[in-house]
């Protein structure tokens, strides 16, 4: 069957939270607050890194990349989520849904790659501090950023075409207030093995490998830290990793949860799927600014100075 002969609906219908349809207007307020915190908090981090010369270091350049991916992720979901909950406008055009799906998955993979880059930064800083400045030059950091971005877009470019080749001749109702690949492919009335295999391939060989190398970097970091003779020195070295570890947990724990529910929890209540997906998309962008502001003295100082200058 040719690509242009496949039957598609002209639009999809998005879904809020099953069983709480009458409360969507009440839920709109907290959602707006979460978006405001995510966008505002990460914008403050980006501005602080930009204007504060003391933050022009590899660790903070990677943090600004993480904040950018969080802002982009929030912007990708914001239009449909707020339309669904605030205006009860549930329809989204088929092609617009494909674009949103591609952006959500791409920025998610980008965040995973940035977290891996940040673990490499911590590994070099702790295990080989004398070579830190020579290894992580501005050119290397820019190259890592470009590689992470290119990997995300190239790896996920087939997804819209894999969906477009599937005939969707039954229901056009999605399970969330945004478009995800697993959700869209379930609506197909033909074989979805290729989509499922490619989705699993992406999950294992990008997110899975990123998580493996992050874990490996921390094994090496712990091995190096244990060689430090003084207790104060060990605690100081480990303290520089706390923010990154919390960011990794905030990203990967919900992601593993939603992937497990989508693939193995087919008989779980619908609200479980919706809850896990919302946690996966909303929690990291909201938490990351707080994590780094609370645990990184230099970030706190830069933010205070920035607001003090604005007040003056």
UniProtKB/TrEMBL annotation:
Molecular function terms from GO: G protein-coupled receptor activity; olfactory receptor activity
Q: Does the keyword Transmembrane helix apply?
A: yes
Checking Gene3D superfamilies in the record gives: Rhodopsin 7-helix transmembrane proteins
Q: Kindly state one GO CC term assigned in the UniProt record.
A: plasma membrane
Q: Where in the cell is it found?
A: Cell membrane; Membrane
Gene Ontology BP term (one): cellular response to lipid
Keyword Iron assigned to the entry: answer is no
Alphabetically sorted, this entry's keywords are: Cell membrane, G-protein coupled receptor, Membrane, Olfaction, Receptor, Sensory transduction, Transducer, Transmembrane, Transmembrane helix
**Matches recorded under InterPro entries:** GPCR_Rhodpsn, GPCR_Rhodpsn_7TM, Olfact_rcpt, OR51/52/56-like
Every copy of the G-protein coupled receptors family 1 profile domain together lies at 41-292
Coiled-coil intervals? none
Q: Which residues cross the membrane?
A: 26-46, 58-78, 98-118, 130-154, 197-225, 237-259, 271-291
Pfam family membership, one: 7tm_4
Q: What membrane topology was assigned to this protein in its record?
A: Multi-pass membrane protein
Protein family per UniProt: Belongs to the G-protein coupled receptor 1 family.
Which named protein is this? Olfactory receptor
List the taxonomic lineage: Eukaryota, Metazoa, Chordata, Craniata, Vertebrata
